[in-house]
Amino acid sequence: MRKSLPFTFFHMHPKALLLEWQQEPNTELLHEINCFKTTVKNHLKEIHQITQGYCTLLIQWKNDLENPAEVKAKLETLFWNIDFSKGNEKLKHWTIPVCYEGEFALDLEELSSGLNLSKEEIISLHSQPTYKVFFIGFLPGFLYLEGLDSRLFFPRKKTPRLEIPKGAIAIGGKQTGIYPALSPGGWQILGNTPIPLFNPDKKNPCFAASGDTLSFDPISYEEYQLILKAKNPTKYLTKKG
Fold first, then answer.
1. Residue 50 pairs with which residues in a beta bridge?
2. 120: how many CB neighbours lie within 10 A of its CB?
3. pTM (2 decimals)?
């Protein structure tokens, strides 16, 4: 009997296919999607771009798909030939310095009141976990991080801010994330990192990739200023793996 694919194809555009998994996001699904994405990149050279979501891959080709059925069959064959127990991801762990003080902690007071936790408890709960990078959006380089302590779950703002500072560390619902550039946004801001995390001039503009892990290292205001004024602030972004 022919096995059933875990995802569905949607022909979204003459040059694009959307693959959608009918599952709730989890680390096993993330591993599966990452492995498949890497395999597709390695085997289909005519692809222009692959955009990943929690449960989706949007694959864009350089030219119109003349025979979508043939392309789907090729993707299906690639999928079933992956050994997911081995994986093919080159993952890293990153440590990012964050200042949770003063002008950077725009919503820490509101979070403290709404969660019935002290500011110190919030900072501790936020900086202790190891987070998993699930995917990158809604801004280029914006990391959606899973692993937030449930005691810190907090709704987004009813009225978003028109400007959130570059480097802002925020909580939105059950997630935490980092704003890589000045942007509108409705997440609750509790800190800021002095390290530039997105550079469009680099071959890989975003320092991290889906599947990587990440932790936050609390620093003082003085340490923040020291890093900010450094000739190469990114040297304070540490990685392993």
1. 59
2. 10
3. 0.80
- Cα–Cα nearest to 96, from 178, 15, 186, 183: 178
Number of neighbouring beta carbons within 10 Å of residue 49:
12
CA distance 193 to 168: 7
The CATH number that applies at residue 74 is 3.30.1360.40
AA letter at 196: P
Give the closest residue to 224 by CA, choosing from 186, 191, 198.
Answer: 191
In a domain, 85, yes or no: no
DSSP state of 154: B
As given in the structure block, the two tokens for residue 187 are 């997440």
Residues 76 and 121 in one domain: no
Q: Domain residues for 200? A: 93-240
Tens digits of residue pLDDT in 119-144 = 999 999 999 999 999 878 777 778 88
